[in-house]
Each structure stands twice: as structure tokens, then as C-alpha cells.
Amino acid sequence: MRYTNLKYWDGISDSLIEGDICTVDELFVEEGRGDSVDLSGFYAIPGLIDAHIHLCLNPEIKDPNEQTLPVRDQLLAEMRQRAESMLRAGITTARDLGGGEYLELQIRDEIARGDTPGPRLICAGQPITSVGGHCHFWGGEADSTEQAMTVLERQNEHGVDLIKVMVTGGNITPGSTPKDSQFEDETIHAIVREANSRDYHVAAHCHGTDGIRQAAEAGVTTVEHCSWVGEAGWGRQFDEAVVAKLAANNVWVSPTINSGWKRFKQQAFVEMLDSNYEKMKAAGIRLIASTDAGIPNVFHHDLPAALPVFAGFAGLLPVEVLRSATSDCAAAIGLGQVTGAIRPGLSADFVVYEANPLEDLAVLERPIMVVSRGVATDVSG
Ligand SMILES: [Zn+2]
User: Fold this and answer.
1) Topology at the third CATH level for domain 47-332
2) What pTM was estimated for this model as a whole?
3) Quick one: which of 26, 40, 93, 283 has the most CB atoms within 10 Å?
4) What CA–CA distance (Å, rounded) separates 191 from 351?
């Protein structure tokens, strides 16, 4: 297939390339063959990647206990709809960071076989958490290093792609506090060691600064949220030494900024967040795009609307925030050799727009065509 006469951004370069995008079967190639589609006047970028979603969660439900009330087949049907809504929004890859029933792994396999339209998924299964800890209702509770290894082994048996650990508490679980760590340092180290020895990367949920420290020291792959919560409140325990450790261990930060963050208008709070991101960037911390889709009011197709908001908080240029949602995100989640750039040999995942996203990120919400693994879907209607 040849998509001709368009301008495209390859996911890496600083500027646009004029020319054709060629695909054979599922891959980008140097020279295309077969049909051609004239895309004069259109723009393309690599398919977007969301580094943090929960396919099993319904964003319209606030109480996590109500999430599993529908019967299994209904849940699966809803998850397929969410997956399709993501694809139609231009999200061609996503990392699922937790559920209790492994249903998202079933959807992952359906999508991979071509039976269900949706983004390529990599899935963590049940996050390792403390007893009664953050998202304990998903079944990954452990009260010792030994039990953490048992939970990890269970994820391995179910065929997960990575390991997720709830290093600190979170908001959606009553009785769990975001600022406090849920595990001893030694347990986090053991989880990362064991996961890495099995070729899994580790995503670490961390709101509190002490948990970010534990994750940084243990050398997790990504820190989710990274909220710098301490006694003084949200974002107020920023720690330069921990930042240095994150940078030294090449830990990516996945801030889960969704489009709803637009509502944060209180100037002092916004300035504090901006300054935290500025300092992280200055220290060389690499950021990736993520939304935590599935939590209340964050829909699975949110990423295109979230990216301009993320760029605003983190002080990123359009090209930088687009890298965080394409090539950088792919590299962070272990898919750098699979997707994230318009390059021969990579999966033919790209999105077509009427205007140049490098000039106006708002166009990301209006894709014209989404090509995923070489298959084009017209989404202009
Ligand atoms: Zn999450």
C-alpha cells in the first residue's frame, strides 16, 4: 500500500517529511506496492500510545466495588467497545496497568489475532499491593516479600507482559493513603529483581515521595503518577535527591495527566506542578504520555485531548509531547522495536489529520484515518 503526497512526522525528527508512506502487510517499508491512496494536503504522525490505562474500569462508575457487578460477558463487551473507541481516536498501542480478572489479557489476544478492533495492548494483570492496600480488590495482595513473589508468579502464569506494583497508597481505595509506602525497601527491590530476571519491566504506582524514592532506588522502569505527596500535601514534597536517583537509573516518569486537569485553575497549585515538572526535565527525567483511563471521568479515548493539557503542565513543545506519546513511549514500555515511529520495519501504525499536529495539538481530537498494523479505518464520519 502507498499513501502518497502527504506530509508526515516520523515520531523522532524535529520537523515534517514530505513524501509517501508505504506499507506491506503489517509493516512500514521503504517501497510500497499495490494500491495507492492520494493524501495530498493531509498530515500523518505515528499511532499514539497511552502508557497507563485500565480497560476493565468503567469511567462512569465511581465506586470500585461496583465495577465487577456486570456479568463477565457484559464486561467483555464493554471492554471491546472501549478498545475500539481508543483505536478510532488514533491510539494504536496502550499499556494496561491493572485489573482483577485478566479479562484485558483476553481482549489483548483478540486484538492481536485481528478478531477485535483495538490498540495493541500490553497488560500487567493484578498489581502487587499490600493487604487492604491500593486496589487490593483486584486480588494482588501481599504482606511480605515471599507473598509478593507468589503474586508475581501468578501473573507470570496468566501470561502478563509486565509487572505493576502499588508502591504507595492511592485515592480510589478507602483506607489507603497516597503519601505512604505500602512495602519495605527490600520488597520493592526483590520485586524488580525477580521481574527483570523474567524479562518483565516494572511499572510502579507512586504518589508519595518516599515511594518514589523506593522505586527509583530499586530501578523500576516507569514511575506512574509521581505526585510528590508528603505531609505538607499533594506535590509539596519534591525531593532533588530522589530526582537525581530517577535520572541516574533511567527511570521514565508517566504523570497520568488527563484532559480533566484543565480544571486545575488555582494559580499557586498550577505553578507548583509546573515547577515540579520543570525541575524534573532539567534533571534529565524523561516523561511519557499516560491518562489512567478508566478512573472516574477519564474515558479510554482521552489521550488526544489530554496531550495539549500535559504539554501545558510539563512545559513541553508540541514535538516533545508527541514524542512522549509515540517513540519515547514505545521505548519506555519495551516496544521501541515494534512501534512508535514511521520507519521501515516497524508496525504500520499511523494517524492522518487535516492539519499539522506539530503546529496545533488540538487537531489530535479530529483524526481522519487510523492505520493500525497496516489496516486502515476511516474515522472521519
Ligand atoms: Zn492506574
Assistant:
1) TIM Barrel (3.20.20)
2) 0.97
3) 93
4) 37
